[in-house]
Amino acid sequence: xAQKGNIGVTTENIFPVIKKFLYSDHEIFLREMVSNAVDAxxxxxxxxxxxxxxxxxxxxxVRVSLDAEKGTLTISDRGIGMTEEEIDKYINQIAxxxxxxxxxxxxxxxxxxxxxxxxxxxxxxxxxxxxxxITKSYKEGSKxxxxxxxxxxEFEISDAERESRGSDIILYIxxxxxEFLEKNRIQALLDKYCKFLPVPVAFGKKTEWKDGKQVDxxxxxxxxxxxxxxxxxxxxxxxxxxxxxxRRLYPMQDEPMFWIHLNVDYPFNLTGILYFPKIKSNIxxxxxxxxxxxxxxxxxxxxxxxxxxxxxxxxxxxxxxxxPLNVSRSYxxxxxxxxxxxxYITKKxxxxxxxxFKENRKEYEEKWDDLKLFINYGMxxxxxxxxxxxxxxxxxxxxxxxxxxxxxxxxxxxxxxxxDGNLIYLYASNKEEQYSYIEAAKAKGYSVLxxxxxxxxxxxxxxxxxxxxxxxxxxxxxxxxxxxxxxxxKKDTLDSDKTDILSATFRTQLPTLDHIEFxxxxxxxxxxxxxxxxxxxxxxxxxKDISRYQSGMNFYAQMPxxxxxVLNSDHRLIKEVLESSENECAExxxxxxxxxxxxxxxxxxxxxxxxxxxxxxxxQEEKDxxxxxxxxLGEQRSKKEEIIANHAKDNKVVHQLIxxxxxxxxxxxxxxxxxxxxxxxxxxK
Length: 685
Fold this sequence. Notes:
Helix content: 40-55%
Distance between the termini: 110 Å
Shape: elongated
Structural class: alpha+beta
Number of helices: 23
């Protein structure tokens, strides 16, 4: 006989709110319903093992079935089932208790509902206009019972027909959720959430090709592997087992470098397998490949709150019943067990890397290019990981040799310590583009590191903080004699007039490049050194590089790139250019230079006259005189530069030297590159 009842809350308070707040995750209803069926089945097995159930267990497969015509999705099991009293206890009372208080608490914070609201049976109403339960308890003498609710506060319970123990949960799919009546959609969700459940789950039948079409066979389509690799003892597994499991998880990925099999039962329960993928770049593309399970039920692949940020680069599976199945991200990050798990995994990763380094250094060095990004990320994002990793982190030089931090310090300390006692680590970020700078450093007996990774620039800053009295300098940041200054040495330099003419000769012929500025300087670098070099200040370049990673440094990102064009006054070609400019411009420059010297003397006298005067005591005519003199001086200097530029524009050697320096630094492009090629051909002729 049918009985009706009332859950005790209003319609507008319960199910519409569930749909509104949980809508973005509404597909997880299937995970909840299937995992409930699996729980009931496992309890049945346990009762039988303990002798609390004397009957035959029979087929324990959980079955998921669709009926498109009726618009239903059914989850069936042969687990423990429920009596009418248990339905009242577990469905009517516990499931719906305290809903009004809950909704009042979270009505102004929709995001907070996830993580504080146990989904379970409720989740079925996210996609259903009506839900029926037909169930029969395993207890002797139990009768089958049917419970029905259409999403209102009213439910109906009545006798039902069911021969075997267990439950059928029948979901009448809502009109706006018809996608859950599509076979492919359900298959995809089962594969996502249920593919490793510990009880067989069947969805339809396997098919075969017959008479020109796919037809069902009599064999169940079991969608899950009940004994995934992480549940097995590591001693029973071979390398190929781990590789095959990785291919199953990540079909399109390269083989992993190595893996860690996690297995701990105190002070928390945790199993899993973490793989080290080959990572060379593109950190963001590698994230979120760890799958989190709870008792073999898939929960999420967003594990930032469970493992440290840098470990999200790993691939694999973590399974722990100590991580709540339905939790908000903020709760995960503050949960005590989760923090313990995070610390444990970090230690296991560091221990594994350290053992690889110690047991087979040669193999470790061969894998270093793939490991470096991962380890750098860890040192940058987690303070204590640097302390763990510093002994197995390597430097690689431009010749491909590897060193630990201590080994490299011993290598360079005698030859690369400057006059102030600072140890200078020279490095290149591109071995090909900076080849000539590298060779110049080698000629001095210096060692040059290759730091060409995605995170090497921020790591350089970290190393300078961690290493005592140490600086990192890129080989192209200055002329070779100033990279490591060992003593103050005065060199013969050109007088100011010659320096001005030489600088103007080159400065006026430099091309205009987008977002790039050049400063021209003259230095005696030796007769055998290159005639022209382009360098970039270490500090400014590094700040601009870091601004790409670190917020709040946009000021540096917006600044133009600043380079120095260094003219080697000792080189034959530079001397010839200077001599040519002086000879060709001498007559035109003579009156201008005389005028400039006169104006400079006048300006010096005006400054001397006003030196001891307060600003308010300086007469207006004195201010006007000063302003006019400065203006005239500027005009004469511009005239001088114009004269030099007019002669330099036809000097092929000047243009060739500039273009060679630009070409060496990858800055010669477009029309300028074409002109260089044409000029080079003409010079060969």
